[in-house]
Amino acid sequence: MTARTGAGAPDVRHDPPRDGGFTMIEMLVAMTLFAALGTVLIGFAMGSSRVADDVRESGNVVGEARLAVERMSREFRQASELSGAQVADGKVVSLTVGVDFDGDGSVEDDPADPERLTYTWKSSTRELTLSGGGSTVQVLAGGVVAADIRLRSSAWIQDLDGDGTTTWQELDQSSIGNKNGAPDAAELPLIDLVSVELLVRDGDTERRFTVQADMRNRGVTA
Ligand SMILES: [Ca+2]
Ligand SMILES: [Ca+2]
Ligand SMILES: [Ca+2]
Predict the structure, then answer these.
(1) Angle at 94 between CA 136 and CA 143, to 5 degrees
(2) Whether the predicted pLDDT of 75 surpasses 90
Protein backbone atom coordinates (compact mmCIF):
# COMPACT_ATOMS: atom_id res chain seq x y z
CA MET A 1 0.00 0.00 0.00
CA THR A 2 2.69 2.37 1.12
CA ALA A 3 4.93 1.31 -1.73
CA ARG A 4 2.06 1.58 -4.19
CA THR A 5 1.16 4.93 -2.75
CA GLY A 6 4.81 5.91 -2.84
CA ALA A 7 5.06 4.68 -6.40
CA GLY A 8 1.79 6.28 -7.32
CA ALA A 9 2.56 9.56 -5.63
CA PRO A 10 5.14 10.75 -8.14
CA ASP A 11 2.70 9.92 -10.90
CA VAL A 12 -0.02 11.87 -9.14
CA ARG A 13 2.40 14.75 -8.58
CA HIS A 14 3.84 14.64 -12.06
CA ASP A 15 0.60 14.19 -13.98
CA PRO A 16 -0.99 17.53 -13.17
CA PRO A 17 2.06 19.55 -14.27
CA ARG A 18 2.23 17.46 -17.46
CA ASP A 19 -1.47 18.19 -18.11
CA GLY A 20 -0.86 21.84 -17.29
CA GLY A 21 2.10 21.87 -19.71
CA PHE A 22 0.06 20.42 -22.52
CA THR A 23 -2.73 22.87 -21.81
CA MET A 24 -0.29 25.78 -21.95
CA ILE A 25 1.17 24.53 -25.21
CA GLU A 26 -2.29 23.82 -26.55
CA MET A 27 -3.39 27.32 -25.56
CA LEU A 28 -0.30 28.83 -27.17
CA VAL A 29 -0.88 26.80 -30.33
CA ALA A 30 -4.56 27.71 -30.30
CA MET A 31 -3.77 31.39 -29.73
CA THR A 32 -1.21 31.34 -32.52
CA LEU A 33 -3.68 29.61 -34.81
CA PHE A 34 -6.46 32.04 -33.91
CA ALA A 35 -4.12 34.97 -34.42
CA ALA A 36 -3.05 33.61 -37.81
CA LEU A 37 -6.63 32.82 -38.78
CA GLY A 38 -7.74 36.22 -37.56
CA THR A 39 -5.09 37.94 -39.67
CA VAL A 40 -6.14 35.93 -42.70
CA LEU A 41 -9.83 36.65 -42.09
CA ILE A 42 -9.24 40.37 -41.54
CA GLY A 43 -7.07 40.50 -44.63
CA PHE A 44 -9.74 38.64 -46.60
CA ALA A 45 -12.50 40.90 -45.31
CA MET A 46 -10.51 44.03 -46.15
CA GLY A 47 -9.62 42.60 -49.54
CA SER A 48 -13.25 41.78 -50.29
CA SER A 49 -14.40 45.20 -49.23
CA ARG A 50 -11.76 46.73 -51.53
CA VAL A 51 -12.96 44.48 -54.35
CA ALA A 52 -16.56 45.41 -53.53
CA ASP A 53 -15.61 49.11 -53.67
CA ASP A 54 -13.90 48.61 -57.01
CA VAL A 55 -16.90 46.74 -58.38
CA ARG A 56 -19.23 49.42 -57.06
CA GLU A 57 -17.12 52.19 -58.59
CA SER A 58 -16.79 50.32 -61.85
CA GLY A 59 -20.51 49.57 -61.79
CA ASN A 60 -21.21 53.29 -61.46
CA VAL A 61 -19.03 54.33 -64.39
CA VAL A 62 -20.19 51.49 -66.61
CA GLY A 63 -23.81 51.92 -65.54
CA GLU A 64 -23.73 55.66 -66.19
CA ALA A 65 -22.06 55.17 -69.56
CA ARG A 66 -24.69 52.60 -70.56
CA LEU A 67 -27.50 54.94 -69.54
CA ALA A 68 -25.94 57.84 -71.45
CA VAL A 69 -25.45 55.71 -74.54
CA GLU A 70 -29.00 54.34 -74.37
CA ARG A 71 -30.41 57.82 -73.95
CA MET A 72 -28.43 59.18 -76.92
CA SER A 73 -29.45 56.25 -79.04
CA ARG A 74 -33.13 56.78 -78.20
CA GLU A 75 -32.97 60.53 -78.85
CA PHE A 76 -31.19 60.15 -82.19
CA ARG A 77 -33.65 57.47 -83.34
CA GLN A 78 -36.66 59.59 -82.33
CA ALA A 79 -35.18 62.80 -83.73
CA SER A 80 -37.41 64.52 -86.23
CA GLU A 81 -34.66 66.87 -87.30
CA LEU A 82 -30.91 67.13 -87.48
CA SER A 83 -30.54 70.86 -86.96
CA GLY A 84 -26.80 71.22 -87.19
CA ALA A 85 -23.34 69.89 -86.61
CA GLN A 86 -20.10 71.61 -85.68
CA VAL A 87 -16.72 70.50 -86.94
CA ALA A 88 -13.24 70.97 -85.45
CA ASP A 89 -10.09 69.64 -87.13
CA GLY A 90 -12.20 67.81 -89.69
CA LYS A 91 -14.19 65.91 -87.07
CA VAL A 92 -17.75 66.36 -85.90
CA VAL A 93 -17.64 67.65 -82.33
CA SER A 94 -21.19 68.81 -81.87
CA LEU A 95 -24.57 67.61 -82.99
CA THR A 96 -27.98 69.22 -82.58
CA VAL A 97 -31.13 67.17 -82.95
CA GLY A 98 -34.78 68.01 -82.51
CA VAL A 99 -36.99 65.48 -80.77
CA ASP A 100 -40.73 66.05 -80.53
CA PHE A 101 -41.02 64.52 -77.06
CA ASP A 102 -44.55 65.79 -76.36
CA GLY A 103 -45.73 64.71 -79.80
CA ASP A 104 -47.39 68.02 -80.73
CA GLY A 105 -45.85 67.95 -84.18
CA SER A 106 -43.18 70.60 -83.64
CA VAL A 107 -39.82 70.95 -81.91
CA GLU A 108 -39.89 73.62 -79.19
CA ASP A 109 -37.13 75.19 -77.15
CA ASP A 110 -39.17 75.25 -73.93
CA PRO A 111 -36.61 75.56 -71.07
CA ALA A 112 -38.78 73.29 -68.89
CA ASP A 113 -38.96 70.57 -71.50
CA PRO A 114 -36.38 71.21 -74.20
CA GLU A 115 -36.83 69.35 -77.46
CA ARG A 116 -33.79 70.70 -79.27
CA LEU A 117 -30.73 68.97 -77.85
CA THR A 118 -27.06 69.57 -78.53
CA TYR A 119 -24.36 67.09 -77.67
CA THR A 120 -20.90 68.66 -77.67
CA TRP A 121 -17.51 67.07 -77.21
CA LYS A 122 -14.72 69.39 -76.07
CA SER A 123 -11.50 67.44 -76.52
CA SER A 124 -9.31 70.03 -74.73
CA THR A 125 -11.19 69.55 -71.44
CA ARG A 126 -12.54 66.08 -72.26
CA GLU A 127 -16.07 67.17 -71.57
CA LEU A 128 -19.15 65.75 -73.18
CA THR A 129 -22.05 68.08 -72.59
CA LEU A 130 -25.75 68.11 -73.34
CA SER A 131 -27.41 71.45 -73.90
CA GLY A 132 -31.07 72.22 -74.27
CA GLY A 133 -33.51 74.94 -73.30
CA GLY A 134 -30.68 77.28 -72.34
CA SER A 135 -28.97 74.99 -69.87
CA THR A 136 -25.96 72.70 -70.19
CA VAL A 137 -25.12 69.58 -68.23
CA GLN A 138 -22.07 67.40 -68.32
CA VAL A 139 -22.65 63.86 -69.51
CA LEU A 140 -20.79 61.20 -67.49
CA ALA A 141 -19.14 63.71 -65.12
CA GLY A 142 -15.73 63.78 -66.74
CA GLY A 143 -15.36 60.03 -67.21
CA VAL A 144 -15.10 60.30 -70.99
CA VAL A 145 -11.61 60.00 -72.44
CA ALA A 146 -12.52 60.34 -76.10
CA ALA A 147 -15.60 60.77 -78.23
CA ASP A 148 -15.97 60.13 -81.93
CA ILE A 149 -19.12 61.38 -83.66
CA ARG A 150 -19.74 60.17 -87.21
CA LEU A 151 -22.44 61.10 -89.64
CA ARG A 152 -23.29 58.96 -92.64
CA SER A 153 -25.87 58.79 -95.32
CA SER A 154 -27.71 55.97 -97.04
CA ALA A 155 -27.49 58.01 -100.27
CA TRP A 156 -25.16 55.47 -101.86
CA ILE A 157 -24.93 57.45 -105.07
CA GLN A 158 -22.76 59.97 -103.20
CA ASP A 159 -20.38 57.22 -102.03
CA LEU A 160 -17.54 58.76 -104.01
CA ASP A 161 -14.82 56.24 -103.08
CA GLY A 162 -17.20 53.29 -103.46
CA ASP A 163 -16.38 51.73 -100.08
CA GLY A 164 -20.06 51.10 -99.32
CA THR A 165 -20.38 53.98 -96.86
CA THR A 166 -21.36 57.52 -97.65
CA THR A 167 -19.76 59.83 -95.12
CA TRP A 168 -20.70 63.47 -94.50
CA GLN A 169 -17.34 64.38 -96.03
CA GLU A 170 -18.37 62.66 -99.25
CA LEU A 171 -21.75 64.45 -99.21
CA ASP A 172 -19.89 67.73 -98.71
CA GLN A 173 -17.65 67.01 -101.70
CA SER A 174 -20.43 65.62 -103.92
CA SER A 175 -22.46 67.46 -106.53
CA ILE A 176 -25.11 68.36 -103.92
CA GLY A 177 -22.50 69.46 -101.35
CA ASN A 178 -21.17 72.97 -100.81
CA LYS A 179 -17.57 71.76 -100.25
CA ASN A 180 -16.99 73.86 -97.14
CA GLY A 181 -15.65 71.07 -94.92
CA ALA A 182 -18.72 70.94 -92.69
CA PRO A 183 -21.94 68.93 -92.71
CA ASP A 184 -24.57 71.58 -93.42
CA ALA A 185 -26.98 73.06 -95.96
CA ALA A 186 -28.23 70.51 -98.50
CA GLU A 187 -26.11 67.78 -96.90
CA LEU A 188 -27.83 67.58 -93.51
CA PRO A 189 -31.18 66.28 -94.82
CA LEU A 190 -29.34 63.36 -96.45
CA ILE A 191 -27.65 62.30 -93.21
CA ASP A 192 -29.61 59.46 -91.65
CA LEU A 193 -27.05 57.46 -89.68
CA VAL A 194 -25.37 58.75 -86.55
CA SER A 195 -22.76 56.91 -84.58
CA VAL A 196 -21.06 58.04 -81.40
CA GLU A 197 -18.20 56.14 -79.88
CA LEU A 198 -17.28 56.94 -76.31
CA LEU A 199 -14.09 55.84 -74.63
CA VAL A 200 -14.80 55.81 -70.90
CA ARG A 201 -12.25 55.43 -68.11
CA ASP A 202 -13.21 52.66 -65.71
CA GLY A 203 -10.59 52.45 -62.97
CA ASP A 204 -7.38 51.35 -64.70
CA THR A 205 -9.08 50.24 -67.89
CA GLU A 206 -10.85 52.04 -70.71
CA ARG A 207 -14.15 50.82 -72.07
CA ARG A 208 -15.69 51.56 -75.41
CA PHE A 209 -19.39 52.36 -75.78
CA THR A 210 -20.98 52.77 -79.15
CA VAL A 211 -24.24 54.40 -80.20
CA GLN A 212 -25.54 53.54 -83.65
CA ALA A 213 -28.76 55.28 -84.52
CA ASP A 214 -30.83 55.23 -87.65
CA MET A 215 -32.38 58.66 -88.21
CA ARG A 216 -34.47 57.57 -91.15
CA ASN A 217 -37.66 58.23 -89.18
CA ARG A 218 -37.14 61.91 -89.84
CA GLY A 219 -40.15 63.19 -91.71
CA VAL A 220 -38.96 66.78 -91.65
CA THR A 221 -35.89 67.73 -93.63
CA ALA A 222 -34.78 70.75 -91.68
CA1 LIG B 1 -43.05 69.29 -79.37
CA1 LIG C 1 -17.36 56.19 -99.00
CA1 LIG D 1 -20.91 71.35 -96.34
Answers:
(1) 65
(2) yes
Do the domain assignments include residue 92?
A: yes
Centre of ligand 1 to C-alpha 184, Å, is 23
Name residues whose C-beta falls within 8 Å of residue 198's C-beta, 6 or more positions apart in sequence. Answer: 65, 68, 69, 128, 140, 144, 146, 147, 208, 209, 210, 211
Query: Sorting pLDDT into bands at 50, 70 and 90, what band is 13?
Result: low
What distance in angstroms lies between residue 83's CA and the mean position of ligand 1's atoms? 15
How far apart CA 98 and CA 105 sit, in angstroms, is 11
Residue 99 lies in a domain: yes
Domain assignment of residue 112, yes or no? yes
For the cut 50, the answer to whether the pLDDT of residue 7 exceeds it is: no
The parent domain of residue 67 ranges over 58-214
* Mean pLDDT across 67-89: 94
Ligand nearest to the CA of 101: 1
Tell me the Cα Rg of the chain. 35
Domain count, the chain: 1
